[in-house]
Prior knowledge:
This protein is of the alpha/beta class.
Amino acid sequence: xxxxxxxxxxxxxxxxxxxxxxxxxxxxxxxxxxxxxxxxxxxxxxxxxxxxxxxxxxxxxxxxxxxxxxxxxxxxxxxxxxxxxxxxxxxxxxxxxxxxxxxxxxxxxxxxxxxxxxxxxxxxxxxxxxxxxxxxxxxxxxxxxxxxxxxxxxxxxxxxxxxxxxxxxxxxxxxxxxxxxxxxxxxxxxxxxxxxxxxxxxxxxxxxxxxxxxxxxxxxxxxxxxxxxxxxxxxxxxxxxxxxxxxxxxxxxxxxxxxxxxxxxxxxxxxxxxxxxxxxxxxxxxxxxxxxxxxxxxxxxxxxxxxxxxxxxxxxxxxxxxxxxxxxxxxxxxxxxxxxxxxxxxxxxxxxxxxxxxxxxxxxxxxxxxxxxxxxxxxxxxxxxxxxxxxxxxxxxxxxxxxxxxxxxxxxxxxxxxxxxxxxxxxxxxxxxxxxxxxxxxxxxxxxxxxxxxxxxxxxxxxxxxxxxxxxxxxxxxxxxxxxxxxxxxxxxxxxxxxxxxxxxxxx
Length: 508
Ligand code: XMP
């Protein structure tokens, strides 16, 4: 296990993902949080930070104490803090470096630089530079603009390294090799953090936690809840009771298809068709936030009704993943805030049950890998994100059963076309939006006066920012034709070319 001490850098999660990609388990904690050193802990990584080490309120930690016990790697701010702690000189340099730089390795005999080319591209993002190293420290690499791109300490304690650049980002072409050298050759990590290993360990831990008690869990058809349920099921079998609710605003055939998949996976899931109840309450509500609230409230009601039918339920399963629980370091001062937890189809705090959260330490890409290893079908693992309030927030204004049916048909055509052409995997999320406008069209000799749908497809990494996907014109033309010719009630199709920000992915 490696610990990453976070000083508030935007790249900290990328460091963790790069370490995990090397099959080494790691966790992120705020730099100010005390931690225990045990025999499983093999090394420490210090993250970057929006602070300068020379700021009065700059976050600091006792690096000298840590190095007495473990190898340490400082990245960017972490490297500068290391240099400063031992008496080096760090200052705002005349040459700031942002983006690409060319790194030259001075000392390829050092373990950290093994297998790294003499010259390679690295990614920089810093205003301060290390101008002088502490006494006895050694420069391992430089760039054209800065004298110290990588360094290490004297050989007489545990290894202590600093990298001015960001080895964790994609654009540092040999960053992964450098990280691997640190993790494997310097810290002695075993590289045994694999999906298969995770499954074995997690199932054993779940058996231990749950024993012969009963667990209830809401399933959404999404990746996280399905993978979490499959793991729990592996541990306790049918003592896991899944509930999958049809809220009337799922995609076409989704309720039946997903239930069928659950059945194939052997999960003990009850499908509850509550569509009518949702339509009744959604009637006359055009406001996006009140639609969200209605759907959230009804979902909880239905779930609690189902839970009440079961006896002796003590535990609640949830598909919480690591980005939901990492404690973040505020960049507006070294105070620590805890991210609020947004769980799709969120269950209320009033359901005070012990939680079972097998994915609590996984990133999304790891959840997918574990899902594949568990044999969950690819169409479920590679699904685009789908909002909890479903098609209700893609029908602008009031939601009616008839409008849901129209949108389901159009969406089905669009999604199938994306899948058939292989474009589905190239976009992060796609969907169809039913607009509350009717316009005039002509079909044969007849005048039509019908609805418009907007097609949306975006590229993104995390949904926080997104660009519209540049789908081929011919593809859009085919989808438009197919929708207008087959879905009576829609006579116009438009494509959304807005990015986020300033627009959002959903229209409501
Ligand atoms: P926006 O529209 O904010 O969407 O750019 C970002 C991501 O969040 C999803 N989304 C939701 N998910 N409940 C959810 O569970 C919601 O109310 C909700 N609103 C948006 C959206 O689909 C996209 O992936």
